[in-house]
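Q: I'm building a small set of examples for a reading group on sequence design. Run inverse folding on the following structure and report the sequence directly after it, with nothing in between.
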């Protein structure tokens, strides 16, 4: 028994059906071609990861037998650049191919269905239709629909892998090259970051991997694309580690081969800083690290030591804890200590990044301190802002020349400076937070203070400033939020946990990690709003590092990587 007759439609026209049939055939062939290309590209991409490509592995093994060979080093670097470029090209081809597969599959399904449309009973017009060419054969139509549907499912499976949370695409979009990231301000340039960070057994949230680091350290991790660097040390050993950002596998572990001027063991090391407190810095091709015995070392990205020099042991309570930073071809170090019989012994030091040789050394009339300098770009060029007792001083990083100074700090300096609304924020627990306009010259103490704040000040954690707000974190757990323009209090909130790690901001949220491993994430807004809590399951005094969609945290024993959706 037949159903009601359907009126004829322009979509049932033989010409339309013939065109749809031809389009289905073309789309079918296109989908098959793209599928083959994607399969070949994916196979080559997995085989040609720059980190462990057989060619580079063989060259590194040869370099281990012939240490110091400049010819081998050049060949390794050239091959790495070539392989990395090929790898990223393949990544882009995969992404483009996935979208082509999606479009081709959709067209294939639509055209095949259209070619078979109108095959049921229809109401015939008063005049017979001219005979037209046939549509798509039923078997071919089913094959086209099946192929198109399969390509849509394949694309749905492939796109998340290419999107970044579980593939190399994510690790290739992450640069957090120094303590507190670009500019030393603790602000992630990446919009995506997991909120819930929990590594406790049985309660893991967003934990992608965790790796035991062989030696302890208070230093924070740094990230450059698919590599994560960290340091560790003991009284008798100093090591640098390179890990795969995707898997957490230790790619290489290198002991420092110190020169004759190195001090094997410092006379004393404070237990809360240890032997590896400074965070390393990297430019992608090299990684630089500073240790408690005064060794400054440079390794290339393959773990080959380039040079090691000693900057000596400072006469201060906490030893060497200020982190190095790179500016152009200079490695800059703030080395502050107690004055001696003949006056101040503190200095700002610049080393040639290629050789480790001293470029300039500027004496500093300050006492012991441990902040890390912050570069500040301005109309007249870059300033290097430092904090110590009693001065905030800005230098020209090209030659170490002093640009301006502000007399306003006291006590042992720990927090690094921050920048907000064009103002330099300098603070220590024994003196007020002062907001300084950085456009002066000489002594600007009486002329360039914009505002001050003197309640619940930090003595370890560096200030965090963004979007017109400043967050101060005390070691007792109290967060104070100020207006960056006026210095007026916006809110305060007591987290009830001791904190040494400096807070950081990513994706509109502030990340705070307590000394016992508790993680609190709250909104970067003018009122306190908690977004998530978690726990590392171990102690933590290191500041987090960020990449696209990832958070890296160094605990007492492990290096953790969190990525949303990868628990």
């Amino acid at each position: 028994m037949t159903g009601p007759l359907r009126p004829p439609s322009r979509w049932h026209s033989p010409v339309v059906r013939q065109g749809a049939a031809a389009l289905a055939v073309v789309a079918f062939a296109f989908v098959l071609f793209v599928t083959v290309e994607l399969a070949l590209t994916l196979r080559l991409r997995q085989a040609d990861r720059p980190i462990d490509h057989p060619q580079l592995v063989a060259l590194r093994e040869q370099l281990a037998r012939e240490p110091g060979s400049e010819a081998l080093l050049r060949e390794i670097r050239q091959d790495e650049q070539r392989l990395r470029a090929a790898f990223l090209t393949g990544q882009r081809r995969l992404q483009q191919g996935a979208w082509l597969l999606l479009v081709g599959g959709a067209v294939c399904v639509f055209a095949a269905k259209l070619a078979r449309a109108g095959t049921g009973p229809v109401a015939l017009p008063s005049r017979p239709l001219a005979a037209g060419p046939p549509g798509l054969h039923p078997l071919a139509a089913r094959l086209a629909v099946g192929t198109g549907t399969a390509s849509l499912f394949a694309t749905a499976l492939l796109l998340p892998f290419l999107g970044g949370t579980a593939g190399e695409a994510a690790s290739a979009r992450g640069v957090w090259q120094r303590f507190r990231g670009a500019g030393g301000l603790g602000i992630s340039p990446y919009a995506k970051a997991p909120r819930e960070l929990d590594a406790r057994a049985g309660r893991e949230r967003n934990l992608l991997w965790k790796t035991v680091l062989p030696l302890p350290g208070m230093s924070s991790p740094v990230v450059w694309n698919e590599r994560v660097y960290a340091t560790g040390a003991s009284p008798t050993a100093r090591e640098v580690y390179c890990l795969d950002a995707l898997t957490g596998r230790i790619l290489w572990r290198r002991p420092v081969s110190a020169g004759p001027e190195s001090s094997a063991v410092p006379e004393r090391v404070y237990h809360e800083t240890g032997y590896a407190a400074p965070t390393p810095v990297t430019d992608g091709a090299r990684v630089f690290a500073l240790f408690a015995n005064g060794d400054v070392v440079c390794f290339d990205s393959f773990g080959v030591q380039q040079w090691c020099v000693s900057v000596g042991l400072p006469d201060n309570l906490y030893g060497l804890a200020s982190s190095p930073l790179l500016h152009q071809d200079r490695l800059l170090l703030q080395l502050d200590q107690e004055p001696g019989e003949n006056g101040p012994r503190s200095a700002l030091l610049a080393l040639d990044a290629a050789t480790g040789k001293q470029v300039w050394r500027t004496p500093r009339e300050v006492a012991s301190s441990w902040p890390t300098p912050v570069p500040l770009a301005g109309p007249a060029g870059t300033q290097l802002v430092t904090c110590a007792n009693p001065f905030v001083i800005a230098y020209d990083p090209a030659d170490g020349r002093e640009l301006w100074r502000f007399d306003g700090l006291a006590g042992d300096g720990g927090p690094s400076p921050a920048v907000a609304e064009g103002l330099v924020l300098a603070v220590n627990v024994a003196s007020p937070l002062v907001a300084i306009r950085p456009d002066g010259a000489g002594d600007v103490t009486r002329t360039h203070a914009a505002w001050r704040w003197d309640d619940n000040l930090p003595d370890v954690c560096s200030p965090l400033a963004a979007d017109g707000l400043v967050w101060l974190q005390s070691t007792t757990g109290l967060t104070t939020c100020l207006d960056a323009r006026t210095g007026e209090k916006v809110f305060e909130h007591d987290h009830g946990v001791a904190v040494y790690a400096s807070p950081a901001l990513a994706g509109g949220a502030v990340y705070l990690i307590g000394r016992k491993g508790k993680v609190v994430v709250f909104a970067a807004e003018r009122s306190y709003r908690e977004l998530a809590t978690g726990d590392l399951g171990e102690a933590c005094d290191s500041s987090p590092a960020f990449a696209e969609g990832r958070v890296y945290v160094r605990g007492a024993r492990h290096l953790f990587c969190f990525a949303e959706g990868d628990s």
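The radius of gyration is 30 Å.
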